[in-house]
């Protein structure tokens, strides 16, 4: 086999692992030479910056890049695609793919990360353009995979970084080719296959504080058989990443929970380890720590919940992967892949706070002690109390997830240049979520001898009856103003067990021909056609603990989730090279794509996309795309059961002044007075957080959208090794599916700007505390966002032995406009940080106008040195409605931040040694008033960990 055919065969393998439009003959040749390193190099040549423009070499090999089902020259694709190589990932400190992707400017922060501990534990999600992880399609080797049932995304922690050959990111809508959930684009993770060598890799790291310890061990081995017609490749990896505790970082050790101008900030929670009296003649008092007597509640009594909480998750993942193929003849090449991942994760939280029952429980709300109770010092009057039950111990959340993905199929030549690929994928993810030291609220009431006169009414009158405890095994009567005994604590707590499952079935048939017919004139090229059919079904269920479903727990309530859908889709693509190698048309190609879909939930829809790629001369290329999107609500958005948690927000009646509400403060005061609350004397039970109900909505309707991009790529002959591109992108989404923040709901109601939101606020408790705010999934209105990408790659040989490689990715967000209700006001959130939601998962935490990632590598023979720099622009804090200002807040904005990393690599024969320091200057994350961690942990995750040192060694044989 000659050299050029070998090269073409290897490039064709890249197509196989991506979109399966390829020649089986090329596949057979790949088996003979199967070398993952060469494949990686081929991917690197296609420009690691952010486009498919081809590198400075201007190569003309035919490959398949995400965004098309047809092989074309690697610089004649109108779609903006960023290619990330395995080497680029491994030269960083990233122990998971999610950690690496967060470096890239186009990756938003609305997905989960390993520094988000109070939510979907241990899951790492990614999104594009801050449009949400539910609007980006993540593929593995061009195939769909089962999602994490808790996070409703592909968990990047389950993708072993040592098995990744490359990652292709389509930074443009892909619904018309890949399906409804590719609104913002596609992330296609290509794994290493078809190797005939072996690799063992060991990696470890630790922060300069001695925590955050990580370890990784992986092995890859491939075997050819039957003279290269078949191959079996096996891979295994074990990875562990230790936690960082909040108390071990001075900037996070004590959460700030107020931010009023001209006033000293408050720290810690109003839910204290001692019992606090909220109503009656003892209102404003708190029990002494030994339970003997009372004193006035003060700042010193506040509870520092940060000392008990994790700042990052403990994550452990084990992966086994088996891959095989065998060519029977050019028409029949069978292949199969099985991947299994077992992941465990853990995090710690402070002990449970309690002020009463939680919806939908009918137990007493608020928590009151009866007037006739012997321990009531104000005998004759019922008194409301609240407390953090530290006697039960800190909450520890643990989860275990098992993911199995099986793909099998056959491909080959039909006739002539017509090729096919038929495959079936099955994926299932099962998860168990355990939370230790949760409080059983019914048992707590029993121990206090509290009996409701009407058990069906949470506001029912109560009486003291010790018989409710005496009749319960293990119950011990307690004085609520004294610490619980050890026996009472055992009776009052339990371990919550929740279970979830997500299942995917996907059948796909793809047919393609890159050379159907040549255009019948000089300069015309071969027309390419691809089409296919796909049928898939997705089901999910989430089964909470019975106590969580009833609301009889001291934690968050959760109702059952269950549902699914199926879709049958037909899609096609035509690529027409109108002109080639003629005057003012080195290349002129147009591309059309379309997809017809039938959903059993919402009926039929059609989507289309047009692209043009024009190179008047070989040094410059212009490209543009225009496409539509249609996204049906996901299984989680439709069927997720309602749950109650605690959102970062402020009760309007606790800040009903002109400082916070300006001219509308009078409306807020009037609303509070109407509810029987005097804002001047009102005391909020837990400043900085309010109970909020979230969940799915079966009445949701699909989103529709339109995306267009316009850009240019420059690869000047007079500067060898240089490739630069500029891209303008614009997304429009109508009927957007999203949730508004609890603060937005409260402000819209109390200021009168959107009175309909008052229906989303539950009746207050007898102590005038907010009972709950409902923030379900809704069709809000619209979303429009646009921006610029500037990407540059430059490789220059300085001396015969020295090479300098520079890569830069830059993103400028021009606008991010959102309607929070249909037909309502448009809010421009570009350059805004949602400080109250910075700990949330699934919502956009902030949209910096400017983000940048730069890497530069100096190579001298077998030694290389890499410097990496990330920049996140400054942002003004926003509560979902208004920007904070010096007049309304003590702190109101976050400055831009630079972070610097270095890596050294040395290769000796078959050995490779690498060491590096992440965040070498130990840059701390900027302060953000989030009432949780004192920063926006979804945005500044790399800085949260601090300075981190790692080393890796691998051997090939």
What does this structure look like?
The protein has 957 residues and is mainly β. It is built from 15 helices and 47 strands. It has a 22-stranded antiparallel β-barrel. Strands 3-5-6-4 form a four-stranded mixed beta sheet. Strands 11, 17, 18 and 19 form a four-stranded antiparallel beta sheet that branches. A hairpin with a 6-residue loop joins strand 38 (802-819) and strand 39. Helix 1 packs across helix 2 (24-33) and helix 1 packs across helix 3. The two termini are 24 Å apart. Residues 1-60 have low confidence and may be disordered.
What attributes does this structure have?
957 residues; 15 helices; 22-stranded antiparallel beta barrel; four-stranded mixed sheet
Shape: elongated
Secondary structure class reads mainly beta
The amount of beta strand, in percent, is: 35-45%
Radius of gyration: 30 Å
Sheet with most strands: 22 strands, antiparallel, barrel
Mean pLDDT: 87
Low-confidence stretches: 1-60
* DSSP helix fraction: 10-25%
State the end-to-end CA separation. Answer: 24 Å
Give a concise summary.
The chain has 957 residues and is mainly beta. Helix content is 11%, strand content 43%. It is elongated and about 100 Å long.
């Amino acid at each position: 086999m000659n050299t050029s055919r070998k090269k073409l065969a290897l490039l064709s393998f890249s197509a196989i692992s991506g979109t399966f439009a390829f020649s089986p003959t090329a596949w057979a040749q790949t088996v003979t030479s199967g070398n993952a390193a060469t494949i990686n190099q081929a991917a690197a040549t296609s420009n690691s910056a952010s486009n498919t423009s081809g590198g400075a070499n201007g190569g003309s090999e035919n490959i398949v890049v995400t965004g098309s089902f047809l092989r074309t020259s690697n610089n004649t694709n109108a779609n903006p695609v960023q290619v990330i190589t395995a080497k680029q990932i491994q030269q960083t400190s990233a122990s998971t793919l999610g950690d690496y992707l967060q470096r890239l400017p186009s990756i938003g922060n609305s997905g989960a990360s390993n520094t988000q501990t109070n939510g979907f534990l241990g899951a790492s999600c990614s999104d594009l353009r801050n449009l949400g992880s539910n609007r980006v399609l993540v593929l593995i080797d061009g195939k769909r995979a089962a999602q994490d049932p808790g996070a409703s995304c592909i968990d990047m922690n389950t993708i072993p970084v040592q098995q990744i050959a490359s990652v292709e990111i389509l930074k443009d809508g892909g619904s018309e080719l890949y399906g409804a959930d590719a609104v913002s684009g596609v992330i296609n993770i290509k794994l290493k296959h078809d190797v005939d060598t072996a690799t063992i890799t060991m990696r470890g790291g630790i922060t300069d504080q001695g925590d955050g310890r990580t370890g990784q061990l992986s092995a890859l081995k491939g075997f050819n058989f039957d003279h290269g017609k078949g191959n079996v490749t096996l891979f295994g990896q074990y990875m562990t990443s230790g936690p960082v505790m909040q108390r071990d970082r001075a900037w996070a050790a004590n959460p700030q929970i107020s931010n009023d101008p001209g006033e000293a900030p408050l720290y810690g929670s109003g839910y204290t380890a001692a019992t606090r009296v909220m109503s009656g003649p003892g209102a404003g008092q708190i029990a002494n720590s030994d339970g003997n007597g009372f004193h006035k509640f003060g700042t010193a009594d506040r509870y520092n919940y940060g000392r008990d909480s994790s700042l990052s998750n403990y994550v452990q993942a084990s992966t086994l992967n088996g891959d095989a193929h065998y060519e029977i003849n050019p028409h029949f090449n069978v292949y199969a892949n099985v991947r299994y991942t077992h992941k465990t994760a853990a995090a710690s939280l402070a002990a449970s706070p309690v002020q009463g029952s939680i919806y939908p429980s009918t137990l007493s709300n608020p928590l009151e002690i009866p007037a006739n109770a012997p321990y009531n010092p104000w005998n004759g009057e019922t008194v409301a109390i609240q407390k953090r039950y530290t006697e039960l111990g800190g909450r520890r959340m643990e989860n275990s997830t098992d993911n199995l993905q099986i793909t099998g199929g056959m491909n080959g030549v039909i006739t002539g240049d017509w090729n096919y690929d038929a495959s079936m994928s099955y994926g299932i993810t099962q998860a168990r979520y355990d939370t230790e030291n949760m409080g059983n609220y019914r048992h707590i009431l029993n121990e206090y001898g509290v009996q409701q006169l009407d058990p069906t009414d949470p506001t029912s009158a109560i009486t003291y009856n010790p018989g409710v405890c005496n009749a319960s095994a293990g119950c011990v009567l307690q004085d609520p103003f004294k610490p619980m005994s050890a026996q009472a604590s055992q009776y009052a707590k339990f371990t919550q067990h929740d279970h979830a499952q997500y299942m995917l079935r996907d059948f796909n048939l793809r047919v393609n021909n890159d050379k159907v017919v040549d255009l019948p004139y000089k300069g015309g090229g071969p027309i390419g056609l691809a089409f296919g059919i796909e049928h898939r079904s997705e089901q999910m269920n989430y089964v909470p603990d019975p106590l969580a479903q009833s609301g009889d727990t001291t934690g968050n309530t959760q109702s059952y989730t269950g549902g699914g859908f199926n879709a049958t889709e037909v899609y096609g693509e035509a690529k027409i090279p109108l002109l080639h190698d003629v005057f003012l048309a080195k290349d002129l190609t147009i591309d059309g794509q379309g997809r017809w879909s039938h959903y059993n939930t919402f009926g039929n829809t059609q989507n289309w996309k047009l692209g043009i790629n024009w190179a008047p001369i070989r040094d410059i290329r212009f490209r543009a795309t225009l496409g539509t999107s249609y996204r049906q609500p996901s299984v989680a958005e439709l069927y997720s059961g309602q749950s109650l948690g605690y959102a970062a927000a402020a009760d309007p009646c606790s800040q009903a002044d002109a400082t916070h509400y300006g001219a509308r403060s009078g409306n807020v005061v009037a609303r509070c007075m109407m509810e029987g609350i005097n804002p001047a004397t009102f005391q909020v039970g837990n400043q900085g957080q309010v109970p909020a109900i979230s969940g799915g909505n079966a009445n949701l309707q699909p989103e529709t959208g339109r995306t267009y991009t316009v850009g240019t790529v420059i690869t000047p002959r007079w500067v060898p090794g240089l490739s630069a591109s500029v891209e303008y992108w614009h997304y429009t989404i109508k009927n957007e599916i999203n949730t508004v923040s609890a603060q937005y709901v409260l402000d819209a109601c109390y200021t009168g700007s959107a009175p309909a939101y008052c229906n989303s606020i539950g009746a207050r408790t007898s102590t005038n505390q907010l009972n709950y705010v409902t923030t379900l999934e809704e069709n809000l209105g619209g979303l429009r966002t646009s921006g610029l990408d500037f990407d540059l790659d430059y490789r220059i040989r300085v001396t015969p032995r020295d090479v300098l490689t520079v890569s830069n990715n830059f993103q400028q967000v021009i606008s991010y406009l959102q309607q929070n209700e249909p037909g309502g006001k448009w809010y421009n959130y570009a350059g805004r940080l949602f400080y109250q939601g910075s700990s949330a998962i699934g919502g956009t935490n902030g949209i910096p106008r400017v983000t940048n990632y730069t890497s530069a590598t100096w190579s001298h023979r077998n030694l290389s040195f890499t410097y990496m720099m990330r920049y996140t622009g400054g942002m003004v804090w926003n509560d979902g409605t208004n920007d904070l200002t010096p007049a309304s807040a003590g702190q109101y904005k976050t400055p831009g931040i630079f972070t610097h990393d270095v890596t050294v690599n040395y290769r000796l024969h078959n050995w490779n040694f690498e060491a590096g320091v992440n965040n070498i200057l130990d840059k701390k994350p900027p302060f953000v008033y989030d009432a949780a961690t004192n920063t926006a942990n979804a945005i500044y995750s790399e800085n949260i960990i601090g300075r981190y040192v790692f080393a890796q060694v691998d051997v090939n044989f």
